Amino acid sequence: MSDRIHNWPAELQNFLLDLKRNPDLDDCFWADLELSPQEVADLSLFEVAARNGKVRFRTSDGTTLVGCMNPLLGLGGSARCNGCAKVRVSFHGVSAD
């Protein structure tokens, strides 16, 4: 694991609006998203760039946290639009920044 910290992109901040703490694991957070093909591509590019490092991100209440981003998990199609997908973004090893 690299010591490098990647900042969550401001243009993707709305993806974390529904971020939840895992009630069984305090250092894990997740959100299920319904994304357009372009949004999936943007998030995937960031996930690849942040691999083997940590990510600094903000929760909807403004708390800044740092943790390791897990690989994106595809959850199937979405009724939001043609070609949209349900995706889970999650983090582990999260602590206050």
Structure explained in plain terms:
This protein is mainly beta and 97 residues long. It has one domain. Helices cover 14% and strands 46% of the residues. The chain is built from 1 helix and 7 strands. The chain has one helix at residues 37-50, and strands at residues 5-7, 20-22, 25-35, 54-58, 64-69, 73-77, 85-96. Strands 1, 2, 3, 4, 5, 6 and 7 form a 7-stranded mixed sheet that branches. Strand 4 and strand 5 (64-69) form a beta hairpin. The longest helix has 14 residues, at 37-50. The model has no long low-confidence stretch (mean pLDDT 92).
Structural class: mainly beta
Strand content: over 45%
- Mean pLDDT equals 92
Largest sheet: 7 strands, mixed
Task: Please tell me the total number of domains.
Answer: 1
Q: What ranges have pLDDT less than 50 throughout 5 or more consecutive residues? A: none
Order of helices and strands: EEEHEEEE
Q: Based on CA inertia axes, which overall geometry fits?
A: globular
Please give the number of β-strands. 7
The helical percent reads: 10-25%
Number of helices: 1
Rg over CA atoms, rounded to whole Å, is 13 Å
What is the terminal separation in angstroms? 18 Å
Quick recap of the structure?
This protein has one helix spanning 37-50; strands at 5-7, 20-22, 25-35, 54-58, 64-69, 73-77, 85-96.
List key phrases describing it.
about 100 residues; seven-stranded mixed sheet; 1 helix; 7 strands
Topology:
Layout (H helix, E strand, L loop, with lengths): L4 E3 L12 E3 L2 E11 L1 H14 L3 E5 L5 E6 L3 E5 L7 E12 L1
Parallel strand pairs: 1-4
Antiparallel strand pairs: 2-3, 3-7, 4-5, 5-7, 6-7
